[in-house]
Write a structure and sequence with these properties.
By secondary structure, the protein is of the alpha/beta class. Helix content is 42%, strand content 14%. Helix 2 packs across helix 3 and helix 7 packs across helix 9.
């Protein structure tokens, strides 16, 4: 924090992501939230994560905090030490913070955060990017394990003063459990929005002949969805003529699933190449076997004027937008690949949700 800036303008934030506008969906969601905070005339200061501590200090702190909070102390010393590490770092951050006692809690998988925040007199705004219990590969766990994990996560989220979910389904689920939750959908920050609008304009006169598959294949759930997607498309290509470009971090490893000359694996591409791919794409095809849905990519593609073909897992919370073509089976996907797709209308800014977030923020401050 700069000394010459008014400390009363800073709110404390715990997040796993930077606001990198060229990053993945998590980065972009963090950037969106930071932009809304800026519109509220506040700034953010991130919690510290690298204070020095000995292994013994971490074990002792972890045991104390878990006992104090009534958590079951695990047999794994590593887990106990991890809890101690989080506690010591957050304690340091809460003690040194000089601005309003409001915490923006994005890293909601760190379950002890709201308890420590309350200990130091902070109000907490929870901004879960996803309900972590429902994100693959946890979905492959036993039903009883998943149920207990989800119940714990919801119990921890209930400690927040205000909750803003990124999807309607998670808002519904929390309300089902009697927890008042708000909805703040993703809408691109201004710098990203300007670029998407340039792509939309360029698409008015571009030649569109190839489908675009894009994702971060280093992410196991994303990779699983892309593999199944390419397997389906390979079989469909035996009967229907079309071409596909595959791009994104780690997609170089998907070559074995693209055994047709009309399937081109581009791997990691720079922003200029992606810009041109989006201008020339017939549509973007998004497929998830399980997981949280494509809550950032789909709105961005629609704003850029690109039709989206997505399975129901991927298009949750966005299926009511125009320009989305949903499918549940390989047959339905085959029909959509042959369909004539028109430029979607630009989606509206969620002004009411943004204003609600800003209002709640100012009330807590």
């Amino acid at each position: 924090m700069e000394d010459h800036l008014n400390v009363d303008m800073y709110l404390l934030r715990e997040t796993k992501f930077s606001g990198n506008l060229n990053g993945h969906g998590g980065n972009r969601r963090t950037a969106q939230i930071a932009e809304l905070i800026g519109k509220s005339s506040f700034l953010v200061e991130d919690t510290q994560t690298e204070i020095s501590s000995t292994r013994l200090n971490r074990y002792c702190a972890g045991t104390r905090v878990m006992t104090k909070l009534g958590f079951e102390v695990p047999s794994s010393l590593r887990t106990v030490g991890l809890y101690g590490y989080y506690y010591l770092n957050q304690k340091h951050s809460f003690q040194r913070h000089k601005g309003p006692k409001v915490l923006l809690w994005e890293a909601t998988d760190n379950c002890i955060t709201p308890y420590i925040a309350k200990e130091f007199g902070f109000k907490v705004i929870a901004l879960p990017h996803n309900l972590e219990s429902l994100v693959a590969p946890e979905i492959s766990s036993s039903t009883s394990h998943l149920s207990k994990k989800l119940e714990r996560e919801i119990r921890h989220l209930a400690k927040a003063d205000v909750i803003f979910c990124m999807s309607r389904e998670e808002q519904w689920l929390l309300r089902f459990w009697g927890i008042e939750a708000n909805f703040l959908p993703y809408y691109p920050p201004e710098a990203i929005l300007a670029n998407l609008q340039k792509i939309r304009e360029a698409r008015r006169s571009s030649e569109k002949q190839r489908f675009l598959v894009i994702g971060t294949a280093y992410n196991p759930p994303t990779r699983a969805g892309m593999v199944e997607q390419l397997q389906w498309l390979q079989r469909i290509r035996e009967k229907v003529e079309f071409a596909v470009d595959v791009a994104g971090y780690g997609t170089e490893d998907l070559l074995e699933f693209c055994n047709h000359p009309d399937f081109t694996v581009l791997g990691t591409v720079d922003s200029d190449k992606l810009y041109h791919l989006m201008i020339e794409a017939k549509a973007v095809i998004v497929h998830q076997k399980a997981g949280a849905g494509s809550l950032t990519r789909i709105p961005e593609m629609l704003i850029a004027g690109i039709p989206v073909i997505a399975n129901s897992n991927a298009c949750r919370s966005t299926s009511d937008y125009t320009g989305i073509y949903c499918y549940d089976s390989e047959i339905e996907l085959a029909n959509l690949v042959e369909k004539s797709l028109h430029m979607p209308s630009i989606i509206d800014r969620p002004a009411a949700a943004e204003n609600s977030f800003i209002h709640n923020l100012k009330v807590l401050v």
